[in-house]
Amino acid sequence: MDLKHGHGASLKRRKQRRSVKIDGSISMNQRYCEVWDEDGTSDTSTLLDKNSLIQPEVVTLQKESLWATSIQMFIPFLLAGFGMVAASLLLDKVQHWTVYQEVSEVYILVPALLGLKGNLEMTLASRLSTHANLGHLDTRQQMISLVVGNLALILCQAIVVGFLASLAAVIFGWVPSGVINVNHALLLCASSIVTAFGASFILGLVMVGVILFSRYFNINPDNVATPIAASLGDLTTLACLSWLASFFYNTIDSHPWFTTVIIILGLILVPVWAWIASRNEYTCTVLFSGWSPVIAAMIISSIGGLILDFTVSQYKGVAVFQLVINGVGGNLVAVQASRISTELHSRAKPGQLPNHMQVCISPCSAFCDSSETSHAGTARMLTLMVIPGHLIFSYTISYLQAGHTSFTLIFMIVYLIAALLQVLLLLYIAQVMTLSMWKHHIDPDNSAIPYLTALGDLLGTLLLGIAFQFLFLIGDRDSDVGD
After folding, report:
1. Considering all CA atoms of the chain, what is the largest pairwise distance in Å, rounded to the nearest integer?
2. 402 vs 161, which has greater pLDDT?
3. Helix 444-473 crosses helix 106-133 at what angle (to 10 degrees)?
4. By the 8 A CB rule, do 446 and 286 touch?
5. Per residue, what are the HEC states of the chain?
């Protein structure tokens, strides 16, 4: 009898005093826990999956109020919009610089670097936001590991992407003329590599600071990080590219070897950053699997560039709105994709969808589903930001007397319809694409945003061209619109 009671008391103490030990060396979706008794011995029969034991305590996401979420989204959205307006004004100014007039291929680098750099920084923001919400930035050791690994990853990707973008610019410049200027080619390559590397390093540090700041003040980084990345990305990249191209142009005659040395040093650094990223548990997979989305996004953006080249030649007013409409759509859809990805990481394993989520949904369900765990509420909030946001940005452009378009009532109605249609299509595609990637064991934090922002560029440019064509057909043919 006493033995029975004593054995029962021992079991009771073990149940009360068990502690959970987490093996931090295993990746996010493969982490296991082992239950330890008070005497230091492990209970090997209790080796459980992360989601069955620690998920409620470690990775349960905090419920956000509608008001708090709206404020967290709208303020960075406005900052991102003004950043795009500033980039448009900067482009209007630097186009008169000597390097832009003498080396016209620099224009080809502008959309390529802006689009690709935006993808790198926004995927970085999405990855770190997911880690922050899952509690992986709460300890100093994990935080340092995540920051170093992700910075090394984007620096490696940036140099390679910059080099490929410069090759594309050289090829596109060679096709119409049939002649390649070697000095100009070296200038383009050096400018692109250094711009991509420098902007990635600066923006990467800013993203880390924004996410740590958000985590400290209990703000969901999914709501603020990607728009801030986009707002600073265009302006920073365009400024770096213009200044470096001008600097290399001024030294190309006196020091022709300088650009060659810069290119060689940049390419030598690629295996260094790749080695650092490959040794990190959080980035080693992305290092080998994260290239196809970036390259595919470059191809999609290039198609949008061909449409832009045609529409600008027909309608002068398209240029100043192209950066704004593309940027707004890309920023909003990146927020939605980042939030959905974070929920998937917290609720399920790759290849498995939570019970309330399915890939094939109707457009109505994407915006009108009343389920508490649905992202339809966020989609509606993001859609409501489109019209007031574009009105603010358009008024700013008009107030600064930029662009070549008269802001008539009919123009604003047609323009806002095009912008609203773009965002509606992107938000629906984001829901389907993100869930489909997760179901096929692809991490949407690394792959969804490049595709979505590239589609945003393509749809925005296409719909903007259609809008200006429609205005022309209905008789709005003043000199500003394109007659």
Report:
1. 101
2. 161
3. 130
4. yes
5. CHHHHHHHHHHHHHHHHCEEEECCCCCHHHCEEEEECCCCCEEEEEEEEHHHHCHHHHHCCCCCCHHHHHHHHHHHHHHHHHHHHHHHHHHHHHCCCHHHHHCCCHHHHHHHHHHHHHHHHHHHHHHHHHHHHCCCCCCHHHHHHHHHHHHHHHHHHHHHHHHHHHHHHHHHHHHHHCCCCHHHHHHHHHHHHHHHHHHHHHHHHHHHHHHHHHHHCCCCHHHHHHHHHHHHHHHHHHHHHHHHHHHHHHHCCCCCCHHHHHHHHHHHHHHHHHHHHHCCCCCHHHHHHCHHHHHHHHHHHHHHHHHHHHHHHHCCCHHHHHHHHHHHHHHHHHHHHHHHHHHHHHHCCCCCCCCCCCCCCCHHHHHHCCCCCCCHHHHHHHHHCHHHHHHHHHHHHHHCCCCCCCCCHHHHHHHHHHHHHHHHHHHHHHHHHHHHHHHCCCCHHHHHHHHHHHHHHHHHHHHHHHHHHHHHHCCCCCCCCCC
Q: What confidence tens digit (pLDDT) does each residue in 27-48 have?
A: 333 333 333 343 444 443 333 3
Q: What is the pLDDT of residues 440-481, one digit of tens each?
A: 888 887 788 888 888 888 898 889 889 888 888 887 665 444
Identify which of 457, 482, 459 has the alpha carbon closest to the alpha carbon of residue 470. Answer: 482
Give pLDDT, residue 432.
87
d(CA 428, CA 376): 10
Categorize the per-residue pLDDT at 65 as very low, low, confident or very high, splitting at 50, 70 and 90. Answer: low
Residue that the structure tokens 């303020």 belong to: 75
d(CA 22, CA 262): 45
The rounded distance, in Å, linking the Cα atoms of 418 and 470 is 11
Return the residue matching tokens 């399915």. Answer: 358
Residue 148, classified by CB atoms within 10 Å of its CB into exposed (0-12), middle (13-18) or buried (19+), is middle
CA 170 to chain centroid, in Å, comes to 26
- Cα–Cα dist 131/211, whole Å: 10
Closest among 148, 99, 158, 102 to 128, alpha carbons compared: 148
- Counting beta carbons within 10 angstroms of the beta carbon of residue 139, is it exposed (0 to 12), middle (13 to 18) or buried (19 or more)? exposed
User: What is the per-residue pLDDT for 266?
Assistant: 92
- Residues, the chain: 483
256 contacts: CB under 8 Å, gap ≥ 6: 183
CA gap 71, 64 in Å, rounded: 11
